[in-house]
# Entry
Amino acid sequence: MKCHAVIGSQFGDEGKGKAVSHFCSELPNPLVIRFSGGQQAGHRVQLKNGLSHVHSNFGSGTLQGEQSYFNNTCTIDPFGIRNEYSVLESKGITPTLFIDDFCPVTTVFDKSENEKFDKLNKHGSCRVGVGQTYQREEDNYSLLFMDLFYPSVVKKKLRLIVENYYKYDINMLQVQQCIKEFEDDCEWLVNCNSIYRGNEICITDYENIIFEGSQGLLLDQRIGFFPHVSRGNFGLETVKIFLNDMLGVLSVSLVTRAYQTRHGNGPMTNEDMPHTIMPNPYEENPDDGAQGKFRIAPLDLDLLTYAIDTQYILGEIENKELIVTCLDCLNDYVLTYKGLTYTLKSETEFLEMIRTITRMPLRISKTPTPELEVF
# Structure
């Protein structure tokens, strides 16, 4: 069994789904493991035949028919899974998903509280309840995937969450309707013929394990710029724990665009610099979404090398690389490093400087399909 981790090195939207899809096409008998975050992922994949999908609740090898597994650090959203499953079926895909018994379950009330909190504090959340779900779990009002197989347990736990944790009036007609719809989604989830409990999978049956990161490292709650971060750890430590320190079987691909992006509020450098970066015509990040404006700026090698350096485990890993995506969106090859601005003469010079500063082998890609080229 060989393992490969795909990690975003910026504020998300780097092209992690594209990289995972590439490896699923290249490697035999793969399994995609989501090991961080949850339903807030939005990983767009487009195949050569034009088939495309934004993966939130399934791994980014799903269009190729590959199976997905959510480990217990991930939240799950019964409504989101049901909705995305229906979308995939409409595209001729029947996805297979394994979910660890101890995955925390997001309720409609977590989403509602997430929306209220972010409107007040404007941290830039996706507003799909991931942070609220983690916090509720820490506060011991737990609801896990395994609980969904026991309807009486779900009813009791949900009532306690509603009445004691979020302190809603249980007699409110709207609350009761939300409870009914949530229970319907849970019932669908546990009865779906291609969604299974995690104990029904044998990881070692697969030749290749592809760990798909969710958010970027600069949104990691311990690495990024608090409070404009996501709840969760998005780097290699979780992968290391999953592998029981067997890092000899692991290779790592860190991913960055050829420029910076950030969706919603929070610090990002170089925004005051003029640039000629072209909009990606396949972007799935409208400015009118929950997070607000989708922001772009020239690449900052200080932030990129900082993100890489936080992954101390890389020192134990022989096979590692940096994937640079969306190169075809650049008109000029501009980046910053140590407070200086560099305007390079060509794509080759631009990539060579990135490789020299990061000390990482490079692979590159252009929109929209997921092929990667060695630089």
